Amino acid sequence: MDLSPIWLTLKLAGITTLILLFVGLPFAWWLSRGRSFLKIIIEAIITMPLVLPPSVLGFYLLLAFSPQHGLGKWLQGVFNVQFVFSFQGLVLASVIYSIPFMVGPVKSALQQLPSALAEASYTLGKTEWQTFRYVLLPNIKPSLLTAAVLTFAHTLGEFGVVLMIGGNIPGVTRVASIAVYDAVEQRDYDMANNYSLILFAITFVLVIAVFVFNKYQAKSPLA
Amino acid sequence: MNKKRVLFLMLAGVLLHGVALAQNVRVAAAANLQSVITVLQKDFKQKTGIVIEPIVGSSGKLVAQISNGAPFDVFLSADMSFPETLFKNGFAEKKPVVYAAGSLIICSSQNIGFINWERLLLSARIKKIALANPAIAPYGKAATELLQQKGILDDVQSKIVYGESISQVNTYITTGVVDLGFTTQSLIKETGSKTKLYYQVIDPKQYEPILQGLVLLKHAANNPNAEKFYQYILSPAAKKIFTAYGYRML
After folding, report:
1. From edge to edge, which strands make up the β-sheet containing B74-76?
2. Model-wide pTM > 0.85
3. Residue B58 and residue A186: Cβ atoms within 8 Å?
4. Could you give the CA distance from residue A131 to residue A119 in angstroms, rounded to a whole number?
5. Both ends of chain A: CA-CA distance in Å?
6. pLDDT for residue A81
7. Confidence check: pLDDT of A193 > 90
8. Which three-class secondary structure state does DSSP give residue B99?
9. DSSP state, A136?
10. Hey, of B136, B175, B180, which one would you mutate to test binding to chain A, going by the most A CBs within 10 A of its CB?
11. Could you tell me which residue, B179 or A71, shows the higher pLDDT?
12. Residue of B nearest to A171 (CA)
């Protein structure tokens, strides 16, 4: 059995989670402080991947990154990168697709912290960044872990976007979910079952881990 | 209204609904028929008044669905082996018959000149080539065989992207996300003046003919309209439409 789709899926989920840790945390922090109309709009946009069919995202990415015109042409010309039919394209799509899973829980956790924490830190002369890094983040560790694991697990389940912009290239864009689809179409149910069982086992363990971990943490529900 | 009467009316409604549905014919059609099927649908409705409900997808996918009990009446495949499989497994009444032969073309949204396309595929300016998944789409299989026979399959392998059916390949070509692709000639007729496409018909001698097979499925047993549609597909009227869309008649 060819395990490369499984590795590719894990690689994609890992890289996506890492990127979202770097991009998503400052974002969640910014969103957690105060409300403005702009923040409401931005938060709504970040939440969209939860409710939009992945095919919609895939469709717009396909148009946006076509090397024939506009953005895709510019990227191809200036940086020689192509976001359709490439692994980096899947990474970009997954980052968009999984962003609510990273930003949502972290933002809620930050908002639930007592404001005295940050204020005490400021009075001790710490900068905003230092406060965020050394005071706030350590206090929301459980939520951070939950967000990271859910982001990872959610990316494992990606299918519609990849089907639209992936091109089913072995070792490059043929992730496990696509391999299952392919196997079913070829009526190779044994192979479909193998991939499916592996995916099921991995995601189940991850979700159980989150639940168990949260049970032993006094605070931090799945929010 | 008493309860019994309501029940009776509901039951009658359900039954009548069933009868009404039985008059329609569900046609599973290979992805290369995407556009021609709508023309056939209109023509058939004009001639008989019978409504066709087309379900379009890759032949492999449709066979998988039919094998798992999908309620389709007629199957128009992109090859002969898929319908033969269905017949062997008892999903079809009769052996499959050929209704058309497909024409493979090489096609692009840019004017790149296909005079010497084998060399063009190898050149650095061609970065992505779209093929339908050869395991489930006969046109993809034909294109793969063609590249193999030309001895360039291994060299261009890294440039190939796979559409899950010929429809997706057509999307890739018309949106220009690939430089070129191998597809069915009916795409040209179908896009008309919407998108300017450049293409060359591949010499039919260079690949195994794409014989497209038709079967009447077991599900159609109590739907006489399905049989009518089956006969219509083999009629001169339908042949004329197929020919207009670039299919060859054998």
Report:
1. B52-57, B25-30, B74-76, B210-216, B97-102
2. no
3. no
4. 9
5. 39
6. 78
7. yes
8. strand
9. I
10. B175
11. B179
12. B158
- Residue B15 pLDDT exceeds 60: no
pLDDT tops 70 at residue B7: no
DSSP-derived secondary structure letter, B101: E
Strand intervals (E) in chain B: 25-30, 52-57, 74-76, 97-102, 104-108, 129-132, 160-163, 180-184, 198-201, 210-216
Per residue in B193-225, pLDDT (tens digit) is 778 999 999 999 999 999 999 999 999 998 999
Is B176 an 8 Å CB contact of chain A?
yes
Using an 8 Å Cβ cutoff, are A181 and A5 in contact? no
Angle between helices A87-112 and A4-32 (to 10 degrees): 40
**Of B158, B128, B160, nearest to B144 (Cα)?**
B160
| Helix H or strand E segment including A24 | helix A4-32
pLDDT at B185: 94
Distance CA B183, CA B190 (A): 12
Residue in B67, B110, B176 closest to A187 by CB: B67
Query: In angstroms, what separates the C-alpha of A187 from chain B's closest C-alpha?
Result: 6
Q: Do A185 and B58 touch (CB under 8 A)?
A: yes
